[in-house]
Design brief:
Blueprint (H helix, E strand, L loop, with lengths): L29 H17 L3 H5 L2 E10 L6 E5 L1 H14 L6 E6 L9 E4 L7 E11 L2 E12 L2 E14 L25 H10 L8 E4 L3 H12 L4 E4 L7 H4 L11 H4 L16 H14 L4 E2 L2 E9 L4 E9 L5 E6 L3 E4 L4 E4 L14 E4 L14 E5 L3 H12 L3 E6 L3 E5 H8 L11 H9 L3 H18 L1 H9 L4 E2 L6 H9 L3 E4 L2 H6 L4 E4 L3 E5 L2 E4 L4 E3 L2 E4 L3 E3 H9 L1 H4 L26 E3 L4 H19 L9
Parallel strand pairs: 1-7, 8-9, 8-14, 9-10, 14-28, 16-26, 17-18, 17-26, 18-22, 19-20, 19-21
Antiparallel strand pairs: 1-2, 3-5, 4-5, 5-6, 6-7, 11-12, 12-13, 15-27, 23-24, 24-25
Helix pairs in contact: 5-18, 10-12, 12-14
Length: 627
């Protein structure tokens, strides 16, 4: 299964055929070409000639827009559709066409116009030009990829993204807070007294936003909102910030390298390990919230909520456990709620005959796995599931001496950690790569259809690097795939949300027979000391862990906020027909209700765009239902 229900299988783009035989193009000066195309764009914008603007694009081209032209995430494919899109934006967007002027961004050496390639294999040379944007609402940034055809340069991809709202910029650097109230003011409170008062939300004070969840999603959007002057309160059922990682299985580390994972405003320090251990990340999250003055009520849950369409406000009842152990109930009235409980929803644990009869030591979902017991030689464990958690848990069991079997029900995309760091991410996210402020726009400026071609090439290179390991897995009976259209784990993550493993050791254990595999069978019955499969075979087990993933975010929406909200929001995660993510980080379908989630890099990038949408509504620039 490549897709979540309703998600589109991203098509593979047709890469441009350039008349230039070499990456250095046809000898034209990159700065001159960049200046010429920018002048042409500005001329068309100033004269409102959107047909002329569309003629600057190649026939088979893309415009990916994040909040510059509309309040939606859009990717428009082909020149004729771009022309229609521009005309619609000019005619239907309140205030007319928002993009007013562009300029070549030469703010650092990374952003200087230079020849590059569209794809990983380097078969499609292009000129990359960073842009700064001036819009009717504020400022933004963009990236153009130009391709040459006989000396004529055309836009193959254009990316535009809103970064600031004019008059409502982030309170950073030259706009930072003073931090002290100087003068002769008897009784004035110091910083800690002010923070303690602010964090309690008493005396009628109301947060504009309640954020459900204080993991990477909650923290990143709370930080962005704070910088924009929008008050927010995180509500989380854990005892401490970071517990969503701290309480997970013993050996867990992030599979992505540190250069890819930096958080907004506070990058990881230069001595940080390449792969972050769960407890170290948890401690960082706790420090992040303290250092950025983010408000969080821990050991708290939303027990009631109601949206008022007329007043455009929520009534939310929160049950909170205080430090002294007492239970407090508070009613707050935010204008926005962000569900930041991760890109997945409830844990997906199958209902299987006989589960109540199990008499072994442990039967649980992977999210509840406490870690394998020490000195467990002779004990038997079964792990149902073959993605990241399943592999990590099976490896933990093996290292503690268990006889462990992994149940692989379908196929899995496997890439080594080296394949990720040295092939998949190295160009943009590595020790010597640009800062994420430069890498992120380069990465996100690529439409999914174009990126999928590159990901297919990357996957082929990773498979060549990993060939001995993959061949060993196949011999062990482990079923492999390369993702949708052989495009690898990242595209599989976008379309499905899982189905892959970044190998940090478990694959070699499977290939060597140290972790057994039961492939292609479902568990149909749990026995007192084992399980029975659909083919009638049985396996003994003292412990059974279901690493079977999570349901869609909407399942948690329904549990927490009720049918009225869940029925109103659209699908979450997976890809729509234009090649943009569904429901998350943007208008959900229910006014004042937003979804935020994903890995650390996605939370870093999209938290800005989500916070800008909320800020625009708060200051009257946008409406809840505005396109």
């Amino acid at each position: 299964m490549w897709n979540l229900p309703g998600s589109v299988n991203i098509p593979l783009a047709e890469l441009p055929v350039s008349s230039s035989a070499k990456v250095n193009g046809d000898g034209a000066d990159p700065n001159q070409v960049a200046n010429t195309i920018v002048e042409s764009i500005n001329r068309a914008l100033s004269e409102a000639k959107y047909n002329d603007l569309s003629e600057l694009f190649a026939e088979d081209s893309y415009w990916r827009d994040h909040l510059v032209l509309t309040w939606n995430f859009r990717t428009i494919h082909r020149r004729k559709h771009i022309r229609t899109f521009l005309e619609d934006c000019a005619n239907t967007t309140e205030g007319g066409f928002r993009l007013k002027r562009v300029a070549v961004d030469r703010s650092n050496s990374v952003r200087e116009p230079k020849m590059s390639v569209v794809d990983f294999s380097g078969t499609a040379p292009c000129l990359v030009v960073f842009l700064s944007l001036d819009t009717s609402l504020g400022t933004g940034e963009g990236v153009i990829r130009l391709v040459s055809h006989g000396g004529s340069w055309k836009i193959y991809t254009l990316y535009t993204s809103l970064r600031e709202l004019r008059g409502h910029e982030e309170a950073i650097f030259g706009r930072r807070a003073k931090g002290v109230d100087h003068g002769d003011k008897p009784g004035r409170k110091n910083w800690i007294e002010c923070r303690q008062e602010e964090s309690q939300w008493e005396n009628g004070k109301q947060p504009a936003v309640i954020i459900l969840g204080a993991g990477q999603a909650g923290l990143t959007v709370a930080a962005r909102l704070k910088a924009l002057g929008v008050s927010s309160l995180m509500v989380d059922q854990n005892q401490c910030i970071g517990d969503n990682w701290r309480k997970r299985y013993h050996q867990l580390v992030l599979n992505n390298p540190v250069w890819y994972d930096h958080l907004p405003y506070m990058p990881f320090p230069p001595q940080w390990p390449i792969f972050t251990p769960k407890d170290k990340l948890a401690d960082f999250f706790e420090a992040y919230a303290k250092l950025l003055d983010l408000d969080a009520w821990m050991q708290s849950t939303i027990i009631e909520s109601k949206w008022d369409d007329e007043k455009t406000i929520w009534t939310v009842k929160i049950q909170r456990k205080l430090d002294d152990g007492s239970i407090q109930e508070r009613i707050l009235h935010p204008r926005h709620i962000i569900q930041a409980t991760g890109h997945s929803g409830k844990k997906n644990i199958p209902e299987i005959k006989g589960m109540e009869s199990f008499k072994g030591h442990l039967l649980c979902h992977s999210s509840e796995f406490p870690g394998a017991r020490e000195n467990a030689e002779g004990k038997k464990a079964i792990v149902v599931g073959s993605c990241n958690s399943g592999h990590d848990i099976a490896q933990d069991y093996h290292e503690k001496g268990y006889d462990v079997t992994m149940v692989q029900r379908s196929s899995t995309c496997i890439v080594s950690s080296e394949g990720i760091t040295e092939i998949g991410l190295k160009a943009l996210y590595s020790e010597n790569s640009p800062h994420v402020d430069d890498s992120d726009p380069l990465f996100h400026s690529i439409p999914f259809a174009v990126g999928k071609v590159s990901e297919k090439q990357i996957t082929a290179a990773q498979a060549e690097l990993d060939k001995p390991l993959l061949d060993g897995l196949a011999r062990a009976g482990f079923k492999l795939d390369r993702g949708p259209d052989d495009s690898g784990l990242f595209i599989k993550y976008l379309q499905r949300g899982g189905g892959y493993y970044i190998d940090v050791g478990a694959s070699r254990l499977i290939a060597d027979g140290k972790i057994k595999v039961k492939q292609g069978q479902e568990v149909v019955e749990v026995l007192p000391y084992g399980v029975r499969f659909g083919d009638g075979t049985e396996l003994e087990a003292d412990e059974v862990v279901f690493a079977t993933g999570y349901d869609n975010m909407r399942t948690q929406t329904r549990d927490i906020f009720g049918d009225e909200v869940a029925d109103r929001v659209g699908d979450v995660w997976g890809v729509n027909g234009e090649g943009e993510m569904r429901g998350i980080w943007q208008r959900s379908g229910h006014p004042g209700f937003w979804f935020h989630g994903g890995n650390l890099p996605l939370c870093r990038y999209y938290s800005r765009l989500l916070a800008l949408q909320i800020k625009a509504i708060e200051v009257g620039i946008a409406k809840y239902d505005e396109e």
